[in-house]
Amino acid sequence: MDLTMSEVMQLSIMETAKVKTAQRKLKGSPVEWVSVIETPVENFIRKNEFVLSTGVGCGQDPELLKEFVIDVMDSGATALAFATGRFVYDIPDNILEMAEEQGFIIIDIPWEIRFSDILQLVMEKLNSVNREQLKQTEHIQQQLIHLVLRGKSFNEILQYLYHHLQMPLAMLDRKGELLTQTHFNKGLLDNLLSELHDKFQGNQSAVGTDHPLYQNLVKLPRKPQSIYAMAIESNGYLQGYLLLGSESQTFLYNPMVMHILEHATTAAALCFLKQNTIEETELRIKDDFLLNMVKGKLFLDEDIYHRAAFFDYDLELPYTCIIGELKNLPEIYRDHSSTRLSFDEWLRGMNYYIQKEINQSGETLQRRLMTAFDDQTIIIFLESSGGNQQAFVNDFLDSVERRLHSLLPGLTVLWGIGTHKDGIEVFDRSYEKATMALDIGKRQNRSGERTFFADTQMNRLLLTIADHQEIKDMTSGIINPIIDYDKKRDMDLIGTFMAYNRNKGNVSQTARILNLHRQSLLYRLRKIEALTELSLVNADDLFLLELSIRLWTLGDLKKRQI
């Protein structure tokens, strides 16, 4: 309960003081501070301040005195008391009329009352009120934590807060989805996410102050009431938003209300953290189950089907296995300056968020999923569709990548996709095919691309002969001179040949694609012939050179610096 001007006027020292204007405003006018101010006012008065003045410097000039009163009113002060009898004998009627019209309180204090005595008694009263408020907010904080520990829902927490704040309240998750609300017009809560994101990214505080209490609060103008939002964070990550509605900003200047909101966001963060911890534990158990199944450590017996049903997995559906290697997580972790977690701790937490995003993509496409996180690799079993499976998988991965890039900007993922043609209950075989597709994609130095097992027939054929020693020697003899020359001259002769070959020997078209002068391209082609001792107009030599480059790209030859 705030100290009001009505209570101030009931102090013994104010017994002989007279309220000259806005008597009706005494009960509803809060007092947060008391001070003595003389002209000029400038910015020395803050909102809800009880101002004492002798009027020195302007008491003999009615216009200066009026300007002084206007400045005090404009500062947001609660009331102004003049000590009359020396500098100001009587407060002019035109000033009293103006203050009455504006609903501003002016008080006449006899000259003999010392300001120091008023200051002392008002400050004692303020301290008493503040102690009571602190005691009350501590009780509210304890009750909020107690609600969380007892496993109460977000709705029950909001109902408790509403009892103390009497303001519309709502809770959103980090995606902007409404979790619960009380006494809010639901239409005001639709489609807030982008606006919330912009406001918080732009650090647009709800009030013009640098006080840390307000730095995590933004205002979304609405009619008839504005929405004020506080971000809820835990472990350095955004968990959701606490929203409240108000037709004015007056609550922002009420310390008790702001402390309650601060405790509320802490309780909400604990609630999110508790919920996440439970889900993360379930996720680790599911990870272990799926990993053991695809790696052949579990047999598909009756017990496995019961365990799968517990996770809401249906093992009798046809699935396509997709493996995604998250390439640059350590770099993203280093750039995430807000976290104090170790990389392993951060990675365990990201497992939860990554799988959550992937599962939401599956829900959007109305397909069943089974997912697991293995170090920095995500394993997905996507329920097969009846139509063009490759197009369906691409649509799914498009959705996944959009969500993951929103979660982890700059993330690079290399995908390997198995096949849906194996049928049901062949998880290990589908996993092996997806792994092989991923490995082939990596060998070809693809970054952020998707490799389908069905599209790797030629590469798989080449891999079967790549380890033959005679073929290795032949490939090394052809490729090594080109590599050595490229290191010295940086011409990319291999890329030049592949472009020339794809364009069926069309020099002009190849030059345009490579953005080279025709003579420069011809020089490179002659250099390739000289280094390899092969003719680019001989069909057998062309085949041998292309085969050598493909084998070099796929095999370990590059790693061994052939």
What does this protein structure show overall?
The chain has 562 residues and is α/β, with parallel strands linked by helices. It is built from 18 helices and 15 strands. It has helices at 5-9, 62-74, 93-102, 115-149, 154-165, 193-201, 255-294, 302-310, 329-335, 343-364, 389-407, 427-443, 457-466, 469-489, 493-502, 507-514, 518-532, 539-554; strands spanning 18-19, 33-36, 49-53, 79-84, 105-110, 169-173, 178-182, 217-220, 226-234, 237-246, 319-326, 369-374, 377-383, 413-417, 450-452. Strand 12 and strand 13 (377-383) form a beta hairpin. Helix 4 (115-149) packs parallel to helix 7. Residues 556-562 have low confidence and may be disordered.
Helical stretch tally: 18
Beta-strand portion reads 15-25%
Determine Rg (CA atoms, Å): 37 Å
Strand order of the largest sheet: 1-5-4-3-2
Structural class: alpha/beta
Distance between the termini: 81 Å
How many strands, what sense, and barrel or not for the largest sheet?
Answer: 5 strands, mixed
The 3D shape can be described as: elongated
Number of E strands: 15
Q: Mean pLDDT, rounded to whole units?
A: 84
Low-confidence sequence ranges: 556-562
Percent helix range: 40-55%
Could you give a quick summary of the protein structure above?
Helices cover 49% and strands 15% of the residues. With 562 residues, it is of the alpha/beta class.
Reconstruct the topology from this structure.
Elements: H1 5-9, E1 18-19, E2 33-36, E3 49-53, H2 62-74, E4 79-84, H3 93-102, E5 105-110, H4 115-149, H5 154-165, E6 169-173, E7 178-182, H6 193-201, E8 217-220, E9 226-234, E10 237-246, H7 255-294, H8 302-310, E11 319-326, H9 329-335, H10 343-364, E12 369-374, E13 377-383, H11 389-407, E14 413-417, H12 427-443, E15 450-452, H13 457-466, H14 469-489, H15 493-502, H16 507-514, H17 518-532, H18 539-554
Parallel strand pairs: 2-3, 3-4, 4-5, 14-15
Antiparallel strand pairs: 1-5, 6-7, 6-10, 8-9, 9-10, 11-13, 11-14, 12-13
